[in-house]
Design a protein that fits this description.
The complex is a heterotetramer.
Chain A (H helix, E strand, L loop, with lengths): L1 H19 L11 E8 L6 H20 L3 E3 L2 E11 L4 H13 L4 E3 L4 H14 L2 E4 L14 E4 L3 H15 L4 E7 L2 H16 L3 E7 L7 H8 L5 E3 L5 H13 L6 E3 L5 H8 L2 H4 L2 E4 L6 H14 L7 H20 L5 H10 L3 E2 L3 E2 L1 E3 L1 H4 L4 E3 L2 E7 L2 E8 L4
Parallel strand pairs in A: 1-3, 1-4, 4-5, 5-6, 6-15, 7-8, 7-9, 9-10, 10-11
Antiparallel strand pairs in A: 2-3, 11-16, 12-13, 14-15, 16-17
Helix pairs in contact in A: 2-11, 2-12, 3-4, 5-6, 8-9, 12-13
Chain B lengths: L2 H10 L1 H13 L1 H5 L3 H24 L8 H17 L5 H23 L4 H20 L2 H4 L5 E2 L5 E2 L2 E2 L3 H25 L1 H16 L4 H27 L1 E2 L8 H12 L5 H18 L5 H15 L3 H15 L1
Chain D lengths: L1 H31 L6 H18 L4 H24 L6 H23 L13 E4 L2 E4 H23 L1 H11 L1 H6 L4 H23 L10 H15 L4 H22 L1 H18 L13
Antiparallel strand pairs in D: 1-2
Classes of the chains: A alpha/beta, B mainly alpha, C alpha/beta, D mainly alpha.
Chain lengths: 393, 321, 241, 288
């Protein structure tokens, strides 16, 4: 009866793969604490995902160097599992599940707004704490209390950046340029409000992500004769090209970046200080000797240079605070308890200084870490310096 | 087994029956285990298989379609938008998520089915990109680049499908429905599709109305993709443009070719293997893509006709020996 | 009945004229041959009549009904079947399945004498073999059998003997005889094999440079000096373009 | 008015780049019947090879461009010979192979060079200004080189025996082979020619734009669009369509902005196909 046998065979073939999934998860030995890192680790935004991973690995290495994380009366060895969530909503959702399957309750990441959107609803199901570094309008909400935010977002800094820029230049109108997806539009809408509050007229221009030549967009933008152009949250590579092409087109006004780190890369891609000329930007954690210690420690602990710049500085406190909260709560399983401890931990990083739990005003929930940050100014091709802004609620 | 039963099975098709059985059995898995990894992978497989069926239906007629994400988006956004009007009845949503993309496919089909071969491939790719842009420029309806989040759970027979287990069970149900539709279509018209796949000039000269079957296949394929979109949105509780990026069609095509295009079991095997591999590789961070690429090379070079095709050929050879 | 009438048919590809002003009538049950040197437009003629290519001018009538420019499947369903120059079967499936598909798509049921035809070609004993595993000659006969299996009134044969061994060519005669007696078909043959044409066709049409050079009984036509000059000097077994 | 001129200048510049890419893409398709998903990967690779030559080996930039072209051509040649060749008639399989290769190329680049943009500047800077219209010098040079490359390609294809052989294979492989052309020799060569062009474009264009992993993806999409518009396998069509795409992209982006601009371009291509299903200069296509 060949027909019947064929059914059997094809059934076996089809179910084999599904059955193969049912292998039991790794058995745990001793006290081992696994934490996750998440973000785009390939493609366009890879540097941010890899910075998250670097931060998680550094925080883990710090406690391991002291013999492990003290949890109750045990010392736990901390390891990091990375997940490439590809800057997509489903990538992050799948990542949450994949990490949950390895018994991971604490995730450093994800990075992008789409990822944050995707992972938020699932954290409750999987009992996981996550730290997103996105600039999404709803980076944290009361509805998903296990989501924390590596702040500040544009809502926290934009006003200070604009006020600082206005001290150096007369800006009555600004054109903002950003990608047309959530990573762009969310920041631009926040920036627009901040500019208007400071009496600056705005126009916004969105481009298709993946655009490589910005000359047409720039021609369009310059037709409105803006006093300044703000590259908002355009990826640093894109922003560098935008700067270069703006200057080639003869634009003489100041160029801003009210949208996150990456100035070094912009400087490199655009062709240097002479091209950049007049530039103001949100500089992330201020470049202080204490912050620089992080780079030295990273090299000492992980045996290689950190190549993520200030991104790593910004991500590190989230990882450190998480481990601290686990230690204080004395549990590696009770996520609710860890979250509760975390919300009340004092915000004081050995390298970044004193900060606050912000977010109440913008999001209605104070789950955003905000440390001192800097506003950088380059004028006439010379770096004027970075002004330190203390966090305030 | 008596001759009548054998005849019936042969008429219905062994592979088709196996495929349906696989999904019937899959209902048991969420009831037997609580393992999050299995839930997660299985849920992705359930979504992926449905989307891959949509590609596979077109492959039955030798048409390689990149348009699946566009129709998935139509189905998914239909559900998300309905959710905003508090429509959460599972039956209504299932019908809508099938019907909306299928209806849109009718005029689109008239446009793109005139094209053959690689033109069809490239144009469907353009269609998927247009859909992305349409989402971006219609923030009022689709939430633009932010998508629509907080989609309410579907309501099946008065019960909200909220827990992980219920979501997965519902995904299994949608996959079973998609399998039934796909199996019924490709089995009932197997001769027509096979003739078009192999030699549409000859088929037409023998009197087959080729465009009619191509149109039918395209419309059903669009509807099935819509079901995949529904399943995905239901899993994420969010309809987001990044879920329907044109580039994900590459995954579904890879699933069906790696699994094998000759049998309906191909998409199932291909999707299961590749989704599993993706999850395995996902924790290898930046090397995930490369590992995926290597896997594609290996399967294409080592298993011509895909996995199911190769296994079938192997068995046939052994039987002949 | 199903008389095939061609009126002033013309076909151009861009500036290239394939044929023009072509008129003839094929009576129900009739049989005619079309000959001409390579590139005379013989295959294109079949393509245009069967709807595969649109004509640039002129009309095609079947049984008095204008079928010009109809799609291939429609013309096929109205009763005009064609065979192809190269072997043309569904290669990956069995002989049985090939025949079954032709019968299914033709939608007229199994035509009279189909099984006897298969027997005559010795295809009956190879029904379960995959069609592209058959010897070339048999594949060709299968292609012919499939054209007949849709139950046509008119059969257009495109170089049925091309590629066949001398010894196999008698099967073409048998096929033509069979479809005329059992199916009542009229047959139009495009062919290079002059023996075959002479043997079979009571009437032949000679095409040259897109025009009808001669039309009549083989004995008369083939004796004409212009026909000999235009065509017979260049007889060969090559397939035309 | 100056916006109008500006858009024209930008459009022609874009068109020249797109033409080099699309010519290679359509060459591979026309001759081998392979839809090359790795085309963007070769573009990216060209950029990185040139960068390595300049920054790592200290080569002069023009020399680096040549090296990049040769290196990508060599990789294309090997890829065709070793992987594509055995499966040449299975269009789906070759499509998947090129996709797999693309994923591997991007991963290798990411692993070696890291995720951030490279510091890779064009050796010539500055721009010509005429009133409010400007023309960057570097763009002018790239445009010139692109046009020269297109001209060279045209000479090779239409004035040499190799070119005649390649075109004969593209027209009809069976006839070409019957005439004694040897696909085993010519196919890898055609593939290498096309990937070399992509590498050349990458080496030329990435320094004036940016060089990072992921710059290959939009290249693939644009090549698709251009080739559809021009007519598959038609070299003249690809060149013509490249300039049309470049100009339409420039004008729509300047007058309607980024998102709408892209949408207009896509819809335009779709509409064209309604009226001319074989593209501007295409003929009937073989099945895929």
């Amino acid at each position: 009866m060949p027909m019947f046998r064929r059914i059997q065979v094809s059934l076996v073939a089809a179910t084999a793969v599904i059955a193969g999934l049912a292998t039991p998860a790794l058995a745990q030995s001793g006290c081992e604490l696994k934490i996750g890192s998440m973000g785009p680790m390939s493609g366009g935004g890879a540097q941010w995902g890899l910075a998250m991973d670097g931060a998680a690995r550094m925080a883990a290495a710090e406690v391991n160097a002291e013999g492990g994380l003290k949890v109750g009366d045990r010392k736990c060895h901390v390891t990091v599992v990375a997940y490439d969530s590809k800057y997509t909503a489903d990538g992050a959702a799948a990542g949450s599940n994949a990490l949950a399957a390895e018994g991971i309750h604490f995730i450093i990441g994800p990075v992008g707004a789409p990822e944050a959107t995707g992972i938020k609803p699932i954290l409750g199901r999987n009992q996981q704490i996550a730290w997103n570094g996105s600039y999404a309008k709803d980076a944290v909400t009361t509805r998903y209390p296990l989501m924390f935010h590596l702040g500040p977002g544009p809502g926290g800094w934009a006003d200070s950046v604009i006020k600082e820029a206005l001290k150096h230049w007369k800006i009555q109108s600004v054109a903002l340029i950003a990608p047309n997806d959530q990573g762009g539009t969310d920041i631009v809408t926040v920036d627009e409000v901040a500019y208007k509050d400071n009496g600056v007229k705005t126009t916004s221009e969105y481009y298709q992500r993946g655009t490589t030549n910005f000359a047409p967009i720039i021609t369009r933008v310059l037709a409105t004769n803006p006093d300044a152009v703000d590259t908002a949250s355009s990826p640093p590579g894109d922003a560098g090209v935008i700067v270069k092409q703006l200057r080639l087109a003869g634009f003489k006004g100041p160029i801003g970046r009210n949208g996150g780190p990456g100035t070094e890369e912009i400087l490199r891609v655009s062709g240097g200080m002479d091209v950049l000329k007049d530039f103001y930007w949100y500089a992330g954690p201020p470049d202080t000797p204490e912050a620089r210690v992080i780079d030295a420690d990273y090299k000492k602990l992980l045996g290689k240079d950190q190549t993520f710049g200030a991104s790593l500085w910004g991500d590190l406190p989230g990882a450190r605070m998480t481990l601290k909260a686990i230690s204080v709560a004395g549990t590696i399983d009770d996520v609710q308890k860890v979250a509760e401890v975390l919300r009340h931990l004092p915000v004081d990083d050995p390298n970044l200084g004193k900060g606050v739990w912000s977010g109440q005003k913008q999001f209605g929930i104070a789950q955003e870490l905000m440390y001192p940050f800097g506003v950088g100014i380059i004028k006439d091709g010379k770096e004027v310096g970075v002004t330190r802004v203390e966090p305030k609620l | 087994m008596d001759d009548k039963a054998v005849g019936l099975i042969r008429r219905l098709g062994g592979a088709e029956i196996s495929a349906v059985l696989v999904f019937v059995i899959s209902f048991a898995i969420p009831l037997l285990t609580k393992n999050v990894m299995i839930y997660s992978v299985l849920n992705q497989i359930m979504v992926g298989v449905v989307a891959t069926f949509s590609v596979w239906i077109m492959l039955r007629m030798n048409l390689l379609s990149f348009a699946t994400p566009a129709f998935m988006a139509l189905g998914g956004y239909t559900v998300a938008i309905a959710g905003q009007y508090d429509i959460s009845d599972a039956v209504v949503l299932t019908l809508a998520s099938f019907a909306v993309p299928a209806l849109v496919a009718i005029p689109l089909g008239a446009l793109v089915l005139r094209l053959r071969g690689t033109y069809f491939v490239l144009v469907t790719f353009v269609l998927a990109q247009i859909m992305q842009l349409v989402l971006f420029v219609t923030p009022g309806l689709t939430g633009g680049s932010n998508g629509i989040s907080g989609v309410p759970p579907v309501n099946l027979f008065g019960m909200d499908m909220m827990t992980n287990q219920q979501v997965l069970l519902f995904a299994c149900g949608l996959a079973l429905l998609a399998t039934l539709i796909t199996a019924a279509l490709t089995r009932y018209f197997r001769r027509h599709f096979a003739a078009i796949e192999e030699n549409d000039v000859l088929a037409e000269s023998l009197g087959l109305v080729v465009w009619r079957y191509k149109a039918l296949g395209f419309v059903i394929s669009a509807g099935v993709a819509g079901l995949a979109g529904f399943s995905l949105v239901n899993m994420l509780l969010t309809a987001h443009p990044s879920s329907f990026d044109s580039i994900i069609s590459v995954d579904f095509i890879a699933y069906s070719i790696i699994g094998g295009r000759v049998s309906i079991l191909g998409p199932i095997v291909g999707t299961s293997l590749m989704v599993y591999a993706t999850n395995l590789f996902g924790t290898h961070g930046q090397y995930a893509q490369g590992l995926y690429g290597v896997l594609i090379l290996i399967v294409v070079l080592a298993a011509r006709g895909g996995i199911v095709g190769s296994v079938t050929a192997l068995l046939r050879r052994r039987r002949a020996a | 009945m199903s008389e095939l009438r061609i009126e002033q048919l013309a076909k151009r590809f861009g500036g290239l004229r394939v044929f023009q002003d072509l008129s003839f009538t094929l009576q129900p049950g009739g049989l005619m041959g079309v000959i001409g040197p390579n590139g005379a437009g013989k295959t294109t003629l079949i393509n245009v009549i069967s709807g595969r290519q649109p004509p640039s001018g002129g009309k095609v009538f079947l049984g008095g009904r204008d079928v010009t420019g109809q799609p291939t499947h429609a013309i096929s369903r109205l009763g005009i079947a064609r065979s192809f120059q190269q072997t043309n079967t569904f290669r990956s499936v069995s002989v049985r399945e090939n025949i079954a598909r032709a019968v299914l798509f033709g939608r007229r049921g199994r035509p009279a004498g189909l099984d006897r035809l298969l027997q005559e070609f010795h295809l009956t004993e190879r029904l379960d073999e995959q069609s592209d595993k058959l010897p070339y000659g048999l594949q060709k006969m299968l292609g012919l059998a499939m054209a007949y299996a849709i139950g046509p009134k008119v059969l257009l044969l495109d170089e049925p003997a091309a590629g066949l061994e001398r010894g196999e060519r008698a099967q073409i005669d048998a096929f033509v005889h069979h479809v005329r007696t059992h199916g009542g078909c009229s047959v139009l043959i495009v062919e290079h094999d002059m023996d075959l044409i002479r043997r079979l066709c009571p009437r032949i049409l000679v095409l040259d440079a897109g025009n009808v050079l001669a039309d009549g009984a083989p004995a008369d036509v083939l004796a004409r000096p212009d026909v000999i000059k235009a065509y017979l000097g260049a007889v060969d077994d090559e397939e035309d373009a | 008015m100056h916006q109008f001129l500006e858009a024209a200048i930008i459009g022609v510049g874009l068109g020249a780049q797109y033409a080099l890419l699309a010519l290679g893409f359509t060459l591979i398709f026309g001759i081998l019947g392979v839809v090359n998903f790795a085309h963007g990967g070769f573009y990216m690779l060209g950029g990185y090879v040139a960068y390595t030559c300049v920054a790592g080996l200290g080569l002069a930039y023009p020399l680096a461009v040549v090296v990049a072209m040769l290196a990508t051509a060599a990789l294309g040649w090997l890829f065709e010979l070793l992987l594509i060749e055995p499966l040449i008639d299975d269009h789906l399989a070759t499509l998947m192979l090129s996709l797999g290769l693309y994923l591997i190329i991007s991963t290798v680049v990411l692993a070696i060079f890291g995720p951030i943009s490279m510091e890779f500047a064009f050796p010539v800077t500055g721009s010509f200004h005429a009133g409010s219209v400007y023309l960057p010098r570097e763009n002018l040079i790239v445009l010139a080189v692109c046009l020269v490359a297109i001209a060279c390609l045209w000479l090779v294809l239409f004035r040499t025996d190799l070119g005649r052989a390649l075109r004969a294979l593209a027209d009809d492989r069976a006839v070409g082979m019957a005439q004694g052309l040897r696909p085993r020799l010519l196919f890898p060569l055609a593939f290498a020619l096309a990937t070399g062009l992509a590498g050349l474009t990458g080496a030329l264009v990435t320094p004036i734009l940016s060089l990072a992993p992921g710059v290959g993806e939009p290249v693939l999409a644009t090549s698709f669009l251009t080739v559809i518009l021009g007519g598959l396998g038609s070299l003249g069509g690809a060149a013509l369509a490249a300039f049309i795409v470049g100009l339409v992209e420039a004008y729509t982006s300047v007058y309607f902005g980024g998102s709408i601009g892209a949408l207009v371009l896509f819809v335009m291509v779709l509409l064209l196909l309604v009226f001319r299903p074989t593209g501007l200069l295409g003929r009937d296509v073989r099945g895929a």
